[in-house]
Structure formats: structure tokens, C-alpha cells
Design goal:
Elements lengths: L16 H22 L1 H15 L25 H22 L17 H6 L4 H4 L2 E4 L2 E4 L14 H9 L4 E2 L1 H10 L19 E4 L6 H11 L9 E4 L3 H14 L7 E4 L5 H8 L16 E4 L1 H10 L10 E4 L2 H5 L6 H9 L21 H4 L19 E6 L6 H6 L6 E6 L7 H5 L7 E3 L3 E3 L2 E3 L2 E3 L1 E7 L4 H11 L5 E4 L3 H14 L5 E4 L5 H12 L5 E4 L14 E4 L6 H8 L10 E7 L3 H10 L6 E3 L4 H4 L3 H16 L1
Helix pairs in contact: 7-8, 8-9, 11-13, 18-23
The structure holds adenosine-5'-triphosphate (ATP).
Length: about 650
């Protein structure tokens, strides 16, 4: 379309050509604009182009406009208008062609992400292969102890030992014992030998619920292993002194009359006293070490003290290294205790580190250490031999942390996972920290030689309450729900002390005492004995005794302060409903903690097992006045 200059524009001669061109184009654009608005097609086209730009999959990436914009021609005077017109027409044509030329290609599939892996699939990733292939054991499986005159039923228990167990009231083996004994006490006597330098034993990891009898599962094989002369053959490491004392009692009771010497090292006695108890000869350096005990039960800190500071204290003869409450101990990096202990069970890499001194007899040195001796008394010394130490790890909340397991340098480990009360996913539960809980065993049925008992669950309840009323809610459940023979867990020694005082001022006629790290070892022992004798009905404590402690008559566990994690919850609750006895667990949850606590339980698939008990104003009204009075007296006792 030719555009003619307007008559008004002509006289204004001062306008430059460029200006004229600009105005002309402007007019052109104005003229064209209404056309574009009227023509819906143009709009549609531009829309569809926009859409196409936004959706690359509908527009093939290699579609290019074949038409090039017209070449810029040299401008000749008088030709500018035509030039502009041609350019613009060409552009419109191009646009039309472009929209017409777009082929209707099949659309590519939309980019999509693969489904996120499930939590369980993630939990199994990077897991120790030995754990993946763990042997799953039904917690309800029991094996009656074979009577005198019959064979051992594959248990490896001698007649004498069976008699001893029956005398102690143990007439059947629990699931963890039934499965572990044949593995640790094989029928082939060569595999039971103290030294197995050419065929060292496999290490063992056991995950079994609290109170399921793990202690006896390692005490029996240790007591039944061969012994000729006294050497340190078994080392049991536990996290606390109280547990050391408890495990010692089990060793002494079951091993009575066997002549095995048992020692403990916890720091409760002076270092030199312990040295005298443990070492026969401190003076002359002996390459084979010297020991007064066959079995040593200890805490890791004191063990390291003896490894570094007691002459002739040696772990070269160890046949069993037991790490009980393994997850807790592996979390302790104290002096890198584990690395030091493992190193002491192996011969040093160079003879420079050989134990100093000559052995009085060459067989006083463990086979794996003999190659380091400066002389070679027999040809048997030519072969490289392996240490015979078998590591046994136990916990109700076994670690699955590959890093921690690697630090143990396990030898072809065999895992046993004892499944607890709920329908379990076995290894997956261990992998996902869904720990098995104790069950209460009731009705029994006999299947072949094994007895299976149907499981009912330990009662678990939670009470959500106002923080200021928490002590009163606690007193209410003591009064109304008969909570005695109870362990009550608080978050600290200080809150233990405060709660005990308030409890006394509330005056319910129930004896409650504090049990915390603030007390001396002697005071703790006395209090524990009184509680066991039921002279004390409620023991209010910190988490000091939440692990491992075994007191038969504990019928209730109260988490007065919510546990910080699921492991703590499992171990606290595990102080009751042990060895098939019934038990009840209570958790007092402050309103602001309820969300966190419930999500913790949900994560561990445990929420459905918790029953909520409502204790409202109506229930508490009767005791409020007495409570106010007790609070007042508590306040006064602190201000005195
Ligand atoms: N076969 C058995 N028959 C009867 N009682 C048993 C048997 N085995 C163990 N017990 C008793 O069961 C109780 C719990 O055992 P133990 O302390 O070994 O549990 P645990 O599995 O180590 O628990 P935790 O994980 O809490 O330490 C103890 O009183 C123990 O004497």
C-alpha cells in the first residue's frame, strides 16, 4: 500500500528525511493496527505462537523459517517508502507462512521424574549385607531344657549345666538362647576349641527385645568353653557399673562350682586394687601376659586404663569379646576405646611392638602372637595364625550404622534378629529403627519339641497434660491406677530430686526414693536392694538405669518426662514386662510436646500401640487442694 504524504506535512520543509520516514511508518502502523484487531486470525496466530514457545514439546526444535527477511537494500533517494513497504509486507507474509508451515507433529511425552524410592528401599541401601541376610527368630519360640539322661537337643548344654539351670528355675530356653547356643556351642569339639588359628570363628550380632534373655545367651557359651589354665578368655564390656554388677551375678549364679574366676573393672575400687585382682605377676614382663581371671566384666573407660597402665594385662588369649548394649557403647568414642581393644586382640604389625619379655613356656603365648617371638621353638611357628577372638554384639536397639559396624572389623558376621510383639518386618525394622518391644507371654501350646506362646502386648499409655499439673497427674495415676513397684524416669538428677520431695509432701503412703548419679555408689546399691526387697515402691530416677537393669517385680514404668528419642523409650519401657511377665508403661506428655512425641511414635510405627488416657479437671478436682499445699511446702523447703 502506497502512502502519500499529507498536504500539511509538505510545507514543513525543515523536516529531515529520516523524520519523514519515521512519521510515514508511524502512519502505516496506525493504518494496519485496526486491521490486526479485527482479524481474529492474526490474534490467534500470535497466541498460538506464544503457546508454542512455552511448550517446546509441541514445536519441533529444528523447524526454522525458510524465508529470510528481505535483504537491506542500499537506500536510493525516493525509494525508501517502497523499501519499507516491501519489508513489512514480507514480514506479514513470513508470519503467515510460519503459522501455516507448522506441521502438526505428534507431541513428545512430557518430561517425568521416576517415583521417589520408598522409605524402606532407602533404609535398605548401604546396609551391611550380613544384616540383610540376618536369621529371623520368632520371639515366641521356646525350647524346654532337655532332661537328664537325654541328649542336649542341639543346645550344646552339658548335663551338669542343664541341672544347674533347672535348679535356678530356668526350665526352658528363650528364643534368643535357643538360636544362639547351637551357633556358639557347635557339636564339633574342634570348633569349640579356645584357639582356632586356622579356622577362626564368625562374629555374631544379635538384635532382640528388652528382657528377652540376651545375657544368658552369652553367659552359657562362655562358661562352657574349654579351660585348662587361667587366662583371660572372655571380656564383657558394658556401659555402666550397675550393669557390670548385674552381669557378674548372672555369671556367678550360673557358673557356680565350675572354678572359673571372674573379675570386674569399673573404677569403683582403686586402680592398684583392681590390678592385684586381675594380674598374677606384675613384676616380670611376660610375653604371654598374666591373668588371675578367666572372665573380665568391665566398663570401657577402666578397660582402657588397664590396657595402657597395667603390666602383663593382655587380650591375646581372648576367645570371646562381648559388647552388650552395643549401640550405646559404639556411640562412646571415649579414648577411641574400641580401636584400642581390637588392636590388643591382634598381634602387632611389627615385632618392635611384641610384648616384651620371654615366655616362661612358649604355649603361654597365644598362637597368633607366637610368630612375633624372637625365637621359634617349634616348626608350628612358621605359619601365620589368626586371633581366635569372637566378637558378640547385643542390643535391643542394635545399630545399623555402616560406619560403626565397619569400625568393629567384624569377621564374616552372622546376624540374629529376634522379632518382638508386633508383626515385624524383620531386618527392615532394624534398618528403619523400628525396634521390637517386649511382649507378655500368656497361654502356651506345645509344637514338637518347641513351645510357642501367643503374644499379648505390654500395655502402653500416654497422658497429655498441662505442664503445671503434671506432678498432680502423676500422683493421680499412682492413686487411681495402682502404680507401685514402678520405675519413674525424669530428664535429670535435679528433677528427680524435686519430684521425690513433692511426692513426700503429697503424702500418699507410698514410699518413693530418688536414684540418680548424685548418689554415691554405696547409696545407690542400698537403694536398689531396698527396691528389690519392695521396701521402696517407687524409684524415681534419671536414665542412668534405663538400660539393661533387670528387676523382676517392676510392674510399671512411668516416663515422667518424655524420652528424647525412640531408643530411650524402648529401653525405659523394657524395664518392665521382662521374661514374659506382664507390665504397663505410662508416658506423661506436656501439651506442647504432644506433637513431637506422637510423630516420634508414628515414625517408629508405634502410635497404634499407645492408648490415650484422659485425666481432666474433673478427675483432679479432689486432690487439687492437697497438691497446692504440697507445692507450698516444696517451695518452703527450697527457700530454707
Ligand atoms: N530361659 C529363661 N527362663 C527364665 N528366665 C530367663 C531365661 N533367660 C533369661 N531369663 C530371665 O529373664 C530376665 C531378662 O533377661 P536379660 O537381662 O538377659 O534380658 P536382656 O535381653 O539382656 O534385656 P535388656 O535388653 O533389657 O538388657 C532375667 O531376669 C533373666 O534371669
Amino acid at each position: 500500500m502506497v502512502v502519500v504524504a499529507t498536504s500539511e506535512a509538505a510545507p514543513k520543509r525543515e523536516k529531515t528525511k529520516a523524520k519523514q520516514r519515521y512519521l510515514k511508518r508511524k502512519k502505516e502502523r496506525k493504518k494496519n493496527r485496526p486491521k490486526a484487531v479485527v482479524s481474529g486470525a492474526a490474534d490467534d496466530a500470535s497466541e498460538s505462537e506464544d503457546d508454542a514457545a512455552n511448550e517446546p514439546e509441541t514445536r519441533p526444535p529444528d523447524v526454522k523459517t525458510t524465508e529470510k527477511p528481505p535483504k537491506k537494500r542500499r537506500k536510493v533517494v525516493g525509494e525508501e517508502d517502497e523499501d519499507v513497504e516491501m519489508g513489512e509486507v514480507a514480514q506479514v507474509q513470513n508470519e503467515q507462512m510460519e503459522t501455516e508451515a507448522l506441521p502438526s507433529l505428534p507431541s513428545f511425552p512430557l518430561p517425568s521424574h521416576p517415583d521417589a524410592p520408598s522409605k524402606s528401599a532407602l533404609a535398605l541401601q548401604g546396609l551391611d549385607q550380613a544384616l540383610v541376610g540376618a536369621e529371623l527368630v520368632d520371639a515366641a519360640q521356646l525350647l524346654p531344657i532337655p532332661p537328664d539322661g537325654e541328649d542336649d537337643g542341639g543346645t550344646g548344654l552339658s548335663e551338669r549345666m542343664r541341672k544347674r539351670l533347672v535348679d535356678l528355675g530356668i526350665v526352658e530356653l528363650f528364643a534368643v538362647q535357643t538360636n544362639l547356643l547351637p551357633f556358639l556351642l557347635p557339636q564339633d569339639s574342634r570348633e569349640r576349641a579356645l584357639y582356632r588359628p586356622y579356622n577362626p570363628p564368625r562374629d555374631v550380632c544379635v538384635s532382640a527385645p528388652t528382657g528377652s534373655g540376651k545375657t544368658l545367651a552369652y553367659v552359657l557359651p562362655i562358661l562352657l568353653s574349654a579351660r585348662v589354665v587361667t587366662r583371660l578368655r572372655a571380656l564383657v564390656v558394658l556401659p555402666t557399673r550397675d550393669l557390670v554388677a548385674q552381669v557378674r551375678e548372672t555369671f556367678e549364679a550360673v557358673g557356680k562350682g565350675r572354678g572359673l574366676k571372674i573379675g570386674t573393672a569399673t573404677g569403683q575400687h582403686s586402680f592398684s586394687h583392681e590390678q592385684t585382682q586381675l594380674i598374677a605377676d606384675k613384676m616380670a614382663p611376660l610375653a604371654g601376659g598374666s591373668s588371675r581371671v578367666d572372665i573380665l566384666i568391665c566398663t570401657p573407660g577402666r578397660l582402657i586404663d588397664h590396657l595402657t597402665g597395667t603390666p602383663n594385662f593382655s587380650l591375646q588369649h581372648l576367645r570371646f569379646l562381648v559388647i552388650d548394649e552395643a549401640d550405646r557403647l559404639l556411640a562412646q568414642s571415649f579414648q577411641d576405646w574400641l580401636a584400642q581393644v581390637l588392636a590388643a586382640t591382634r598381634p602387632p604389625a611389627t615385632s618392635a611392638a611384641t610384648p616384651s619379655g620371654f615366655p616362661n613356656q612358649h604355649d603361654a603365648v597365644a598362637p597368633s602372637f607366637r610368630s612375633l617371638l624372637p625365637y621359634r621353638p617349634t616348626t608350628d611357628m612358621l605359619h601365620r595364625k589368626q586371633p581366635s577372638c569372637q566378637k558378640l554384639l547385643f542390643s535391643a536397639t542394635l545399630t545399623r550404622d555402616p560406619g560403626k559396624l565397619a569400625a568393629l572389623d567384624l569377621r564374616d558376621p552372622k546376624y540374629f534378629v529376634v522379632q518382638g510383639a508386633k508383626v515385624s518386618d524383620g531386618v527392615l525394622d532394624v534398618a528403619m529403627d523400628k525396634f521390637s518391644m517386649p511382649a507378655t507371654l500368656t497361654v502356651s501350646a506345645i509344637v514338637a519339641n518347641l513351645r510357642y506362646k501367643p503374644l499379648t502386648f505390654v500395655q502402653e499409655r500416654m497422658v497429655v497434660c498441662e505442664p503445671s499439673l503434671k506432678p498432680l497427674v502423676f500422683f493421680h495415676i499412682v492413686l487411681e491406677h495402682g502404680v507401685t513397684n514402678a520405675l519413674v524416669f525424669t530428664k535429670s538428677a535435679e528433677s528427680t530430686e524435686r519430684l521425690v520431695r513433692l511426692f513426700e509432701f503429697f503424702n500418699m503412703g507410698v514410699v518413693a526414693r530418688a536414684y540418680s548419679s548424685d548418689l554415691t555408689a554405696g547409696e545407690r546399691k542400698t537403694i536398689l536392694e531396698k527396691f528389690k526387697a519392695q521396701e521402696i515402691q517407687i524409684l524415681i530416677c534419671s536414665d542412668l538405669i534405663s538400660r539393661g537393669i533387670d528387676i523382676h517385680h517392676v510392674a510399671h514404668v512411668v516416663s515422667y518426662d518424655v524420652p528424647v528419642d525412640m531408643r530411650k523409650y524402648v529401653h525405659r519401657v523394657g524395664r518392665t514386662a521382662r521374661a514374659g511377665r506382664p507390665g504397663e508403661a505410662w508416658t506423661l506428655v506436656e501439651e506442647q510436646e504432644a506433637r513431637y512425641f506422637k510423630s516420634m511414635m508414628k515414625e517408629a510405627d508405634h502410635l497404634p500401640r499407645l492408648k490415650r488416657l484422659r485425666v481432666g479437671d474433673k478427675e483432679l478436682a479432689g486432690s487439687k487442694e492437697r497438691y497446692e499445699d504440697a507445692l507450698q511446702r516444696l517451695k518452703e523447703s527450697y527457700t530454707k
